[in-house]
């Protein structure tokens, strides 16, 4: 059976590891041409080669989502490799070394790096790719990776991360409305990886933090998502990135703006927040 996406082109930022790596493989298995974009050159080369060895059509291109010129070059090289882009996944994201720290102790560099990657990275991706996607007029999709933490309701443990993901939700809602105003053949989507903590290396994001934005070399509070779950008193149940990629593809197929796996815990937090807003009530600390 021929896939609806056979021969189409997808670009995935943060594509060399975690959810991004699995999105690249899943799209390629649908018969798509895939641009795997990442700032980690060595990992990028290794992972793109591994997918090609599987017979998948994947090209790795180093790109820094925080650099507008780098994203322009990514768009140019993507077009040169495969022509029109049909799916753009603004997936690159970082976790800031902020767990167990109060907001007022975080440095300007902490805020700058978090927003540069998680927010401006998406803005740069939209600016670099969407004009050409609109111009070629073919159906397409822009998928921005958010998080239930901040994107829907905020946890008190990660002020920068939650703030960036709240921004991603707002940006993507506006993008959705503007596509409608343009009568565009493009659709915006918000991807919420889950329903549980996703088993990625986001807690070791410091490996990619620019030297000029580093304030200390102290280790992060947690080394893995399993450590974080245990310390937070959560059930040790993790979602694997492969599951997120499958959920994302299905959400694109179904035309869902909110690509949001069912989660009673998350639904309760959203309901509580909504009721607080409607009742003009002060928020209470969320239950873990």
UniProtKB/TrEMBL annotation:
InterPro entries (UniProt xref): NAD(P)-bd_dom_sf, SDR_fam
Record key words, sorted: Oxidoreductase
SUPFAM superfamilies xrefs: NAD(P)-binding Rossmann-fold domains
Domain of life from the UniProt record: Bacteria
Membrane spanning residue stretches: none
Record-linked Pfam families: adh_short (PF00106)
Family: Belongs to the short-chain dehydrogenases/reductases (SDR) family.
Protein known as: SDR family NAD(P)-dependent oxidoreductase
Lineage, opening ranks: Bacteria, Pseudomonadati, Pseudomonadota, Gammaproteobacteria, Cellvibrionales
């Amino acid at each position: 059976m021929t896939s609806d996406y056979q021969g189409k082109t997808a670009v995935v930022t943060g594509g060399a590891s975690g959810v991004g790596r699995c999105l690249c493989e899943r799209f390629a298995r649908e018969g798509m041409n895939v641009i795997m974009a990442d700032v980690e050159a060595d990992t990028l080369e290794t992972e793109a080669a591994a997918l090609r060895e599987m017979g998948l059509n994947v090209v790795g291109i180093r790109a820094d989502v925080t650099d507008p010129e780098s994203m322009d070059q990514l768009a140019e090289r993507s077009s040169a490799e495969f022509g029109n882009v049909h799916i753009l996944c603004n997936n690159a994201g970082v976790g800031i070394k902020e767990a167990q720290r109060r907001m007022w102790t975080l440095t300007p560099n902490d805020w700058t790096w978090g927003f540069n990657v998680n927010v401006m990275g998406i803005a740069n991706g939209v600016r670099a790719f969407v004009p050409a996607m609109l111009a070629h007029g073919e159906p397409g999709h822009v998928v921005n990776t958010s998080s239930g933490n901040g994107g829907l309701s905020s946890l008190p443990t990660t002020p920068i991360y939650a703030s960036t993901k709240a921004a991603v939700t707002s940006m993507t809602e506006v993008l959705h409305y503007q596509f409608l105003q343009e009568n565009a053949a493009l659709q915006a989507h918000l991807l919420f990886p889950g329903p549980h903590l996703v088993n990625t290396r986001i807690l070791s994001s410091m490996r990619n933090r620019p030297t000029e934005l580093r304030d200390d070399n102290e280790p992060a509070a947690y080394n893995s998502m399993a450590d974080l779950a245990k310390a937070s008193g959560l059930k040790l149940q993790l979602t694997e990135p492969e599951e997120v990629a499958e959920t994302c593809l299905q959400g694109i197929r179904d035309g869902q703006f909110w690509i949001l796996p069912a989660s009673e815990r998350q639904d309760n937090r959203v309901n509580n927040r909504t009721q607080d807003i409607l009742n003009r009530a002060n928020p209470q600390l969320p239950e873990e």
